[in-house]
């Protein structure tokens, strides 16, 4: 249950444990030998973020994956993110610490559902949030992330209907920002669903001068009372530019590690102390080391899926 009566306030970074330091040293050595780069999403545990070469949101990581040159990508996130890296880099090896790092939202949408929506709305453009399986991206016209969804939808002529999948709350946010009526699928992120407006109000009472950040995957009543609703990468920018001391963070709790590390003079309050994604958290330093040792598990995507999915992702990157 999420509540802010026991909200956690984040301050200074802890010292690194010697056992962790040893693991990190072994990972760094093996990474050099393998020619690997480690990418980590903002929701990973702190130790995983700290060992990564790049920490970012889906758009930042997708951009890097499309332009980087390392022969091996070790992707620390959830399965659809590693798939995206492989879609954009068919000749490079993409490995993950744990194949069981899935995404409940991504599992809510199937290629068959996309076919059904297209049949019900002929002529509509299918805009697909990157939080989706490769096979769904392959059925889509263009992809988006939380950072560029408004821009992507605005790039489509107003006379053309838009099917937005799979996140209904990101879709609702885009509707309010663009003034468009979108055809929304009823998917959602279970982690962001647990962030409640009443808890934001309570946090504001305890920290009246705080900046309130919320992810657009949050429910609309949360987005309505936040100071800024944006992607995690843009949250980092907002915090850097904020002249105040305290920030209330309405997203998965792993984001606070990055914000705390980049802004040691500021304090952070989790809008929901239990809003951590169990799927993101299955990755660990030990699993990173094992993946580099075995060069597995490896992501493979059939060309009949990869090619059309790549087109949908590239259209997004061209616009974003």
From TrEMBL:
Its EC number is 2.5.1.72. Signal peptide: none annotated. Iminosuccinate binds at residues 41, 58, 129-131, 146, 215-217, 232. [4Fe-4S] cluster binds at residues 103, 189, 277. Binds 1 [4Fe-4S] cluster per subunit. It catalyses: iminosuccinate + dihydroxyacetone phosphate = quinolinate + phosphate + 2 H2O + H(+). Its cofactor is [4Fe-4S] cluster. It is found in: Cytoplasm. GO terms for biological process: 'de novo' NAD+ biosynthetic process from L-aspartate. Pathway: Cofactor biosynthesis; NAD(+) biosynthesis; quinolinate from iminoaspartate: step 1/1. InterPro entries: NadA (IPR003473), NadA_sf (IPR036094), Quinolinate_synth_type2 (IPR023066). GO terms for cellular component: cytosol. One of its GO terms (molecular function) is metal ion binding. Keywords: 4Fe-4S, Cytoplasm, Iron, Iron-sulfur, Metal-binding, Pyridine nucleotide biosynthesis, Transferase. PANTHER family: QUINOLINATE SYNTHASE, CHLOROPLASTIC, QUINOLINATE SYNTHETASE A. Belongs to the quinolinate synthase family. Type 2 subfamily. Catalyzes the condensation of iminoaspartate with dihydroxyacetone phosphate to form quinolinate. This is Quinolinate synthase. It comes from Leptospirillum ferrooxidans (strain C2-3). The gene is nadA.
């Amino acid at each position: 249950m999420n509540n802010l009566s026991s909200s956690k306030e984040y301050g200074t970074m802890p010292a690194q444990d010697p056992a962790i330091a040893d693991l990190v040293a072994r990972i760094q050595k093996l990474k050099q030998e393998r020619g690997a780069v480690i990418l980590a999403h903002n929701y990973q545990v702190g130790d995983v973020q700290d060992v990564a070469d790049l920490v970012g949101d889906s758009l930042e990581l997708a951009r890097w994956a499309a332009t980087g040159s390392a022969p091996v990508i070790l992707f620390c996130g959830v399965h659809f993110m590693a798939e995206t890296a492989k879609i954009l880099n068919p000749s490079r090896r993409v490995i993950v610490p744990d194949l069981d790092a899935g995404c409940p939202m991504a599992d809510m949408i199937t290629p068959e559902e996309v076919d059904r929506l297209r049949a019900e709305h002929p002529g509509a453009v299918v805009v697909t949030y990157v939080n989706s399986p490769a096979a769904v991206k392959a059925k889509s016209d263009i992809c988006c992330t939380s950072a560029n969804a408004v821009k992507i939808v605005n790039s489509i002529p107003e006379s053309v209907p838009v099917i937005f999948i799979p996140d209904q709350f990101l879709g609702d946010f885009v509707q309010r920002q663009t003034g468009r009526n979108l055809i929304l699928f009823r998917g959602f992120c279970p982690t962001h669903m647990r962030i409640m407006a009443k808890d934001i109000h309570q946090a504001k009472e305890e920290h009246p001068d705080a900046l309130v950040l919320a992810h657009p995957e949050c429910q609309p009543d949360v987005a309505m009372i936040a100071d800024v609703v944006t992607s995690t990468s843009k949250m980092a920018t907002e915090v850097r530019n904020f002249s105040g001391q305290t920030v209330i963070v309405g997203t998965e709790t792993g984001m606070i590690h990055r914000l705390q590390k980049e802004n040691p003079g500021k304090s952070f309050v989790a809008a929901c102390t239990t809003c951590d994604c169990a799927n993101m958290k299955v990755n660990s330093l030990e699993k990173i080391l094992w993946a580099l040792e075995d060069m597995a598990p490896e992501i493979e995507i059939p060309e009949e899926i990869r090619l059309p999915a790549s087109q949908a992702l590239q259209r997004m990157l061209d616009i974003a």
